[in-house]
Amino acid sequence: MPVKPTQSPERKPRADAQRNRGRILDVAKRAFTRYGADASLDDIAKEAGVGPGTLYRHFPTRDDLLEAVYRTEVEKLAAAERKFADSGSAIEALRAWMLLFVDYITTKKIIAPALSAQVVGRSKVIEASYAPIHEAVRALVKRAVESGEVRKEVDAIDLLRALVGVAYLESAPDWQSSAKRLVDILIAGSRKNK
Prior knowledge:
Layout: H1 15-35, H2 41-48, H3 52-58, H4 62-85, H5 90-117, H6 123-146, H7 156-169, H8 175-190
Helix pairs in contact: 1-2, 1-4, 4-5, 4-6, 5-6, 5-7, 5-8, 7-8
């Protein structure tokens, strides 16, 4: 009777490998934001305190690194919704999340075109990001409406569209300041009249 080979369970990456990956992603985000999608991968590895081999072991291509940075930003937004919802008032949680969304737009403006220009399937990465982002903002708005801090007719997606609009209509380098001011205007306009 033939013996089936036993399958070994997939091992979790070592703690140092996880730390290296995290540092590479943090440094890559800053580098891509500062220098664009063509930032030097060797410089990213050096600033992250790893060798080029370590960077390429985690991210075999520039596209893989861009995609990982983008996915990480989406994951941070989704996790922030839960974190902000557990602390402070509902409207302050919504405001804090929207300010974080402005930072996400900064990364997306640089990385999304590079992802879309590469392999056709890469645009699916961008499309897949919509659901967790929309779910997060809808949950925050719903909580703020239920708490009585926000008017019930406020549409969560309209808030995102306003911020994205400012980011893409304004080509000035300080668009982020404008977008952050817009967050406060949107929050003030969303408040329930007492």
